[in-house]
């Protein structure tokens, strides 16, 4: 049996459903899969034992949850489920590496003499704490697109992966809308985000 599934490189969308039946076609519940029972091949390459996890849904219906590393290459991930004496199940998953998502979140703290900006970067909603280069911040006035703060470098806070910038001259004003634009190079590519911000006091 063979099926083609679209798979995204996020935990909830790396799940490949399968069913185990015996020689009569009856479902086989409560199986335990050990090393060698699930084989994977990327783009027709050599098979390797699974690194992900499996879960029984009910009555012999299971799903395999591939790891991010197992679906990090564009093309086809072939999956072979082997559990003697039951039927072998074959599956293929079409995957692509550009399905990772990147995000950023910037907080603005207004102190007595400075506006303090602090940014965290995320990959697939998980914090990125290393490998961030060339982080910058720009603050744009929503009214006319002019810069409140031109593109300027941010400084890492210790080794946390959090970056900060303090502005004492061009500060945000109450009742005015701004767009924050943090940019950083992560995993060899420039990542750009936008975040609206404003204050009422």
What would you note in describing this structure?
The chain is an all-beta fold and 201 residues long. It has 2 domains: 4-99, Immunoglobulin-like; 102-198, Immunoglobulins (Immunoglobulin-like, Sandwich), CATH 2.60.40.10. Helices cover 0% and strands 51% of the residues. The protein contains no helices and 18 strands. The chain has strands at 4-6, 15-19, 38-42, 48-49, 53-58, 61-65, 75-81, 89-95, 102-110, 115-123, 126-127, 132-141, 147-153, 155-156, 163-167, 177-186, 189-192, 195-198. The strands form 4 sheets. Strands 1-8-7-3-4 form a 5-stranded mixed sheet, with no helix packed on it. Strands 9, 10, 11, 14 and 15 form a 5-stranded antiparallel sheet that branches. It is elongated and about 75 Å long. The model is unreliable at 1-12 (pLDDT under 50).
Morphology:
elongated
Separate helix tally: 0
CATH homologous superfamily of the largest domain?
Immunoglobulins
Helix/strand structural class: mainly beta
Supply the number of structural domains. Answer: 2
Gyration radius, in Å: 24 Å
Give me the count of strands: 18
CATH class of the largest domain: Mainly Beta
CATH names the topology of the largest domain as Immunoglobulin-like
Largest sheet: 5 strands, mixed
């Amino acid at each position: 049996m063979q099926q083609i599934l679209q798979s995204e490189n996020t935990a909830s969308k790396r799940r490949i459903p399968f069913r185990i039946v015996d020689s009569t076609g009856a479902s086989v519940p409560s199986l335990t899969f050990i090393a060698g029972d699930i084989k994977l091949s990327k783009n027709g390459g050599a098979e390797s034992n699974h690194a992900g996890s499996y879960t029984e849904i009910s009555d012999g219906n299971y799903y395999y949850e591939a790891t991010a590393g197992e679906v990090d290459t564009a093309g086809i991930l072939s999956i072979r489920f082997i559990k003697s004496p039951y039927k072998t199940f074959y599956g293929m998953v079409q995957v692509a590496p550009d399905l990772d998502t990147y995000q950023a979140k910037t907080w603005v703290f207004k102190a007595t003499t400075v506006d303090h900006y602090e940014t965290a970067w995320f990959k697939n909603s998980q914090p990125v704490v290393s490998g961030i280069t060339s982080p910058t911040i720009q603050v744009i006035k929503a009214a006319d697109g002019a810069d409140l703060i031109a593109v300027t470098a941010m400084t890492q806070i210790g080794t946390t992966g959090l970056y900060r910038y303090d502005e004492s001259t061009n500060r945000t004003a109450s009742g005015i809308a701004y767009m924050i634009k943090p940019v950083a190079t992560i995993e060899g590519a420039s990542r750009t985000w936008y975040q609206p911000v404003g204050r009422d006091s």
